[in-house]
Design a protein that fits this description.
Length: 259
């Protein structure tokens, strides 16, 4: 079930380096939010803080709050593994488990979450997830073949099937189309449009047209200079960001004056 994410006063560190400072934002359920901004301003860092992937890096930590429908993701009783099950992630490069079959790639997350399931229930869930990722028709006759044998765009949809199989509440996507050709990119964008009905989606993209095409809300990150922390300086409906942003820096960025 899609959930609301409320971020308050979030600071994100790598050791002593403050990479992202003071993010306050509320992301509504069943919407797509795009995060845009120049390289190094902390978009990916912020995204990874939303499912506690950030802390996997030694010395990395956050201050502030990320609350999902009332659940404090960094609270003392919150388990990072369960957070990552609730908040799924799709990466820039499609990363199916290379030696695993297409079927097992989708089933992997369910097995890791040690849900005991009959073979026929698992078959149903794998099919539903592959259909949900608009991949079923292309792979239904070769489910036992390795995931690595698919095209890049198919591999990315396989990764999305794997992510949605565990029924997360939120789906994070870090430049999911940057390694894909335009046709595969459109297939993923169509898919995002369908997935928004079931999930809260946050996507990092360098592609302004993509942000404009797929998202309802856009967050613009910026930084004042090298070594300075990135900040989310504007969060607004995407239409407003691209037609009449509140901040001059947002306008300069989207009109290609920097970045
Ligand atoms: N593992 C890490 N260890 C230390 N610093 C890091 C690490 N990853 C990122 N950083 C730093 O944190 C800051 C934000 O980086 P991040 O990758 O989040 O930016 P970004 O906006 O996603 O950039 P890009 O658009 O180029 O992907 C940068 O100064 C970067 O050098």
């Amino acid at each position: 079930m899609a959930k609301r994410i409320e971020v308050s006063d979030l600071d994100i560190y790598y050791g002593n380096f403050l990479a992202v400072q003071g993010v306050n934002v509320s992301v509504e359920p069943r919407t797509i939010t795009a995060l845009i901004g120049p390289s190094g301003c902390g978009k990916s860092t912020f995204l990874r803080a939303l499912n506690r992937m950030h802390e996997v890096i030694p010395g990395a930590r956050v201050e502030g709050k990320v609350v999902m429908d009332g659940q404090d993701l960094y609270g003392a009783d919150s388990d990072p593994v369960s957070v990552r099950r609730q908040v799924g992630m799709v990466f820039q490069r499609p990363n199916p488990f290379p030696t695993m079959s297409i079927y097992d790639n989708v089933a992997a997350g369910l097995r890791l979450n040690s849900r005991k399931m009959s073979k026929s229930d698992m078959d149903d869930l794998v099919e539903r997830s592959l259909r949900g990722a608009n991949l079923w028709e292309e792979v239904k006759d070769r489910l036992d073949r390795p995931g690595s044998g698919l095209s890049g765009g198919q591999q990315q949809r396989l990764c999305i099937a794997r992510a949605i199989a565990v029924e997360p509440d939120v789906l994070l996507m870090d430049e999911p189309c940057s390694a894909l050709d335009p046709i595969s990119t459109l297939a993923i964008e169509d898919l995002m449009n369908e997935l928004r009905e079931r999930f809260t989606i946050v996507i990092v993209t360098h592609n302004m047209q993509q942000a404009a095409r797929v998202s309802e809300f856009t967050g613009f990150f910026n930084l004042n200079g090298v070594g300075q922390p990135g900040r989310m300086i504007e969060y607004n409906p995407t239409e407003k960001i691209f037609s009449n942003p509140d901040e001059k820096a947002t306008e300069d960025y989207i009109s290609g004056r920097f970045g």
